[in-house]
Every structure is written in structure tokens, then in C-alpha cells.
Amino acid sequence: MDTSEPTTPQASTGRVNQKLRTRRAIVQAAVELMRSGREVAMPEVAKAALVSEATAYRHFPDLVSLLQEAMAGQMPSPAEALASVADSRDPVERVAVATEHLLRTVLTYQGATRAMIAGTITRPESAGARPAMRFGLIDLALAPLDDTLAATDPAALRQLKNDLAVVVSAEALFALTDLAHLDPEQAVASVVRTASTLTRAALDAAASR
């Protein structure tokens, strides 16, 4: 005969609520580590959340999935990022602001950014977990071209966006800081200059055609 006590609705609800609290604690710990700029790894997250590493992995199968949830809602929208140039119709100026915003965000969340890149670069199928902020920023920065270059030479506009996607990136920033040994300010200035030059060159080429 089974003498175990039946599970009550209250007990079941209590377990669900506890799981939700634990999950929120893990995510919040990841957010705090992200904001610190330090390296983000599952053992450090679990320690900060006061849970075991095994518990953290029960809620999130890998660091990428945890970072994806932790990053959600932490970054300003493209419109918020470009608020200072909202009235500008100059794509070069707008691209410069978008580029600097992205790079400074990367520096602020450097540990999480590196962990996300490391976790997805060898697993292309998980690349969709990356925020891909650059594309929204580039699209909005080039919005003044929707009535001009987009109408006269949409292929040229697509190419410019692809070119900028290579430059307006954490990868470009890390190449300059890690490999070229520039300090962060020098690296940001270099990438902003490159993005601005690309944009200006595309506009000049379009004007000459």
C-alpha cells in the first residue's frame, strides 16, 4: 500500500514558485555580473545566486541561454541610442553616434559579450541567441537614405549595411584592443572613424553615379 501523502495543490504551487524564484535569482546574478564588466561564467553566476552550479544548469542548459535571458531588456533601443541625433539627416553623423554607442555598450558588458561570442562562435546554430544590436542601429542610422539611396540604388545601400556590420561590432573592437594593443578609447575612435569613412565613401560614390 502506498502510504505517501498525496501532493496538495498548495505544495505543487509552492514548488513552482520556488523554481521561479531560483530562476530569477540566477538571472539577476548574471545581470549583476554583466554590469560589472567582469568575466561571466556559470560557476560565478551560481555562487552569486547562492545556488549550486548543478542547479543553475538545471534552469539553463548552457551559459549562452542564460546570457540571452539576462541581456533581454538591458540594452537601450536603437531609437534611445540615437536620441542625440534624432533630428539629424546626416547619415555619417548618425553612423558615428551608432558606432560609438555600440562599442561603449560592449565595453560596459565586456565580460558577457566575450562569453556570448565564445559560446556561439563554435556553435553557429546558436548564433541567433546573440543580441545583434548592430543591425538595428545601422538600419536606424541610415534611415535618412530610405527616400534617396534606397530608391535609386538599393543594392548599394544593402552593401553599405553589410560593410558596416563588419565594422560596427564587438569583434572589430576586440581585434584592436586584444591584437593591436590599443587602449579602449583609441580602439573606439578607430572603429568610429572607419565606419564614418565607409559611409561617406558610399554616399560620394552614389552622388557621382
UniProtKB/TrEMBL annotation:
Gene3D superfamilies from the UniProt entry: Tetracycline Repressor, domain 2
Keyword DNA-binding annotated: yes
Pfam family, one: TetR_N
Taxonomy, superkingdom: Bacteria
Record-annotated HTH tetR-type domain positions: 26-69
GO terms for MF: DNA binding
SUPFAM superfamilies for this protein: Homeodomain-like
Keywords per UniProt: DNA-binding
Official protein name in the record: TetR/AcrR family transcriptional regulator
Organism from which the protein derives: Streptacidiphilus pinicola
